[in-house]
Structure formats: C-alpha cells, structure tokens
Amino acid sequence: MAGFTVAIVGRPNVGKSTLFNRLLEQRKAIVDDFSGVTRDRQYGVADWNGKTFNVIDTGGFVVGSDDIFEREIRKQVIVAMNEANVILFMCDVTTGITDLDASMADQLRRTDKPVYVVVNKVDNSERLLDATEFYSLGFERTFFLSSITGSGTGELLDDVVTHYNDEVDEVSPEDEGIPKIAIIGQPNVGKSSLLNALVGEERNIVSDIAGTTRDTIHTRYKLFQKDFILIDTAGIRRKSKVHEDLEFYSVIRAIRAVDEADVCMLLLDAEKGITAQDLSIFSLAARKGKGVVVLVNKWDLVEDKETNSVRDYEKELKNRMAPFVDVPIIFTSVPEKQRIFKAIEMALQVAENRKKKVPTSKLNDVMLKAIESFKPPVVRGTPIKIKYVTQLPTYTPAFAFFANLPDDIKQPYKNYLENQLRSHFDFQGVPIKIFFRKK
Ligand code: GDP
Ligand code: GDP
User: Can you tell me which family this protein belongs to (predicted)?
Assistant: First the structure.
C-alpha cells in the first residue's frame, strides 16, 4: 500500500528516537531541521518482513515554559492523528503514568485510527509486572518492549503491519495505468505556481479525483494527447490548529507523494540550489524505484547567465546527486512560461522509460558485446564469466546477469554494466536494479 505511515508520539525521554533508530536500522533518516522549539523530527523508511512503511518520530524535546511544552506536545499528537495510519503512543515503565501521559491518552482516544500503547524500557521481568499499570489507560492494544535490547519489537511490528492493507488505494479502474506525476519540493519553490501555469487552461482538466482523506490531491489531465495524473502536495492547507507547521507537513506530504507517484518532479529554487532535505527526498525516490525529473525553477532570477551557466549548474547538481545522475534537469521559469511544458513531456517520457521492457535477444546482443570489450576481473585465478542477461518482470527496471561467480562481481563492474544499459537503452530518470545470479 502506498504511503503506510507509522507515527511515534510520547513525552520526551520515553525512548522514541531509540525505537525509531531500531526500526530504521542502517537506513538513513530524513531530519526536519526547521522545527524551531522542538527537537529535530525524523522521518524514515522501515521494513518488516518485506513490508516497507514510513516512520515518523515526532520529536519531543521541547524548550520553553510549561505551557509551550504542553502545546508543542499536543501539536505533535494532532499531526500524528492527521498524517499516520497507525500511532505508537510511547510511555516509560520507569516513571509510570504521568499527568502528561494521561492527557495525551485523552487526546488519542478521539481518533479512529489504531493507537498502540507502547510501554518502553521493559528491560527485565520485574519491570514487566510494573508495566501492567498501563492497561489502565484503556486502549485495546498495549505492548511492552525494550527499545534498547529490541525485545518485544517483533511482536509489535507483526501487529502493526496487519493494518497494512486496511486502506485500499483509491485508484478507479479507468485511471489504472495512467502515469502519476508528483510535484514535490520545499515550500515556496513554486509548486502551486507551476501547477496553475500548466493546467490553468481548464479544458485540460479531465476530472478531479476526490480525496478527502488524502494528503495529496490527484487530478487527471490531458496534454499533448496524453493522459496523466498530477499529484499536488502544495494546495492543501489543513483547517487545523497546526497549519502553521508548514515544513513538517511538507516533508510528510512529499514522502507520501513519492509513494503514490510513478515519477517525481522535484522542484528546486535556482537561487538556493539543492538542499540536504531535497537530497534526502531525491534518494528516497530513487530507493523506492520512482522516476525523477529535477526542475531548477525561478531560473529567471539567476543573473548574468553566461553561456556556460546551465552546464556548470548542472555539473554541480549532479555532483550532489551522485551516484544517480542519469536524471533530466530542466531550467524553468513559471512567470516566463519557460520550459514548463517541456518538464511535463520529460516526466511522461520518464514514465515510459520506467515501464520499458527490453527484449531478451536485443539485451544479450548489446550487453554481451559490452562485457566482451571490458571483461569482469579474474578472481583467485578464475575468470568471471557472464553468460546471459535478462530483464526481470518487475514493475520497475531490474536486470539479472547470470555468471559463474555471481558473488565476486563488485560495485565498479556493476556500475559499468549500469552505464552500458543506460547508454544503449534510454532509462533516463529511472533507477535501475542489477542482480547477479548463478548460472
Ligand atoms: P525520546 O526523547 O522519547 O526520543 O527518548 P530517547 O530515545 O532519546 O531516549 C531517552 C533515554 O532513554 C535515553 O537515555 C535512552 O538510552 C533511554 N532508553 C530508550 N529506550 C530504552 C529502553 O528500552 N530501556 C532503557 N533502560 N532505557 C532506554
Ligand atoms: P509553493 O509553496 O512551492 O507552492 O510555491 P508558490 O507556487 O506558492 O510560489 C512561491 C513564490 O515564488 C510565489 O511568489 C511565486 O510567484 C514565486 N515563483 C514561483 N515560480 C517562480 C519562478 O519561476 N520565477 C520567479 N521569479 N518566481 C516564481
């Protein structure tokens, strides 16, 4: 399911970020560094038995007077109730139920979404006895665990992922197979302006796909004889007390939009360049196998555009985007209507590239020649031989190379094969997976 999201809420020091890190393991978190009075909030992608889901650690360390503190925590709970599919309400067995726990519990009782009371720091069996106190909060689901040792997390996750299929994707049959393009980027880069400029002409709009529960708006369009769905994350302003918390929402929405999309149009502000957060979203999209087009917007504001400025800008950008650099970069200006339709055309092309299946005979013709002209190395006196390659029947491009010593083929040669694939078959904007198998 697209965008299944688990939020961890709780007072400071109960162990939220410890659990978060455990769930993510080696994966990289996206840290929201805008959050002001609260500690950095973290976002990431976790995996449990092959089911991947988004995790939000809503933070918790709050500086300020007691009332600011309370207000911030309440805000975090509201955000979690709005944005997540499942809420983990974390408490600490060593302190027992505090006043703040009790008031958060009151707040959480108002949601229909599954709320798990997660009693943390249950490191041993004595503490397990103390932990039973938390049943008195009256939630249907109460779990005990130790985030430090990891005990109890498996049971919790087994239960959490049972909600995975609760929410069915709201794709109607006639929208099936139509490319979905998400417009993402930080606040103020020009997402809404782009959308309005692209589709200002009402006649292009085929239908609005109503989505009252969504964080994203899906609208179906037709341009250049092609149907597509734009996923817009910009236009939504929630009628809640937390609407000022723009950056927080914008990151969660971006993550969700990436999940729902086939291709992401990542907008940057030409004057600001690519930020650490843009890069996190970019690599997230790549990891999830999504197509990407980068738009350097507000190009009109860049002064003294010399002959080489586009090339230099692009080079600089690709240095930061490495290793995934076979990505279209388009320099746009919304008020001057520069290249904005080209951007859409490019996104549609990337959607095509992502679905591409190269016939096996052609693939072998080309790739075996490439392998012949630059052979894999010899290991322990035995030459590595790649005999056959096939594209896997996966949703996004993946290739299996059959070899005598598949485990001995290292990253540099893998990069070579990827570059060869990219130079012979157009996979621009699309992440490619390469596997080696025993022949
Ligand atoms: P957060 O403020 O809720 O994110 O809490 P942290 O994850 O920063 O944890 C607060 C403190 O509790 C840290 O010193 C952790 O090492 C400790 N802690 C977290 N989980 C456990 C646990 O399962 N057992 C014990 N004994 N300590 C823990
Ligand atoms: P969003 O938050 O990403 O949806 O950004 P908006 O579409 O609201 O744009 C933020 C501001 O940037 C507005 O004042 C726009 O008029 C302006 N803007 C958007 N695109 C461009 C552009 O290409 N060039 C210039 N100069 N301004 C732009």
Answer: Belongs to the TRAFAC class TrmE-Era-EngA-EngB-Septin-like GTPase superfamily. EngA (Der) GTPase family.
Q: Does domain 173-355 have CATH number 3.40.50.300?
A: yes
Nearest by Cα to 297 from 338, 328, 326: 338
Pairing mode, strands 180-184 and 263-269: parallel
Q: Do the domains 173-355 and 5-163 match in fold? A: yes
Residue that has been written with the tokens 């859409």 in this structure: 344
User: Rounded to an integer, what distance in angstroms lies between the CA atom of residue 217 and that of residue 181?
Assistant: 11
Give me 320's structure tokens: 């930061």
Q: For ligand 1, say whether the CB of 280 is within 6 Å of any of its atoms.
A: no
Give the pLDDT band (50/70/90) at residue 39: low
CA distance 79 to 104: 13
Q: What is the whole-number distance in angstroms between the Cα of residue 39 and the centre of ligand 1?
A: 15
As its CATH architecture, domain 5-163 has: 3-Layer(aba) Sandwich (3.40)
Q: Which amino acid residue places its CA nearest to atom 28 of ligand 1? A: 121
Q: In terms of pTM, does the model score above 0.90?
A: no
CA dist 384 → 370, 406, 436 (Å): 14, 8, 12
For residue 137, the 8-state DSSP code is: G
CB 140 within 8 A of CB 134: no
Angle between helix 340-355 and helix 191-199 axes, rounded to 10 deg: 90
Sheet architecture: strand order including 263-269:
205-209, 217-223, 226-232, 180-184, 263-269, 291-297, 329-331
- In tens, the pLDDT along 293-346 reads 999 999 999 876 766 688 899 999 999 999 999 999 999 999 999 999 999 999
Domain range 360-438, CATH architecture:
2-Layer Sandwich (3.30)
- Residues with C-beta less than 6 Å from any ligand 2 atom: 185, 187-193, 234, 297-298, 300-301, 333-335
Contacts of 72 (CB under 8 A, 6+ apart): 37, 38, 62, 64
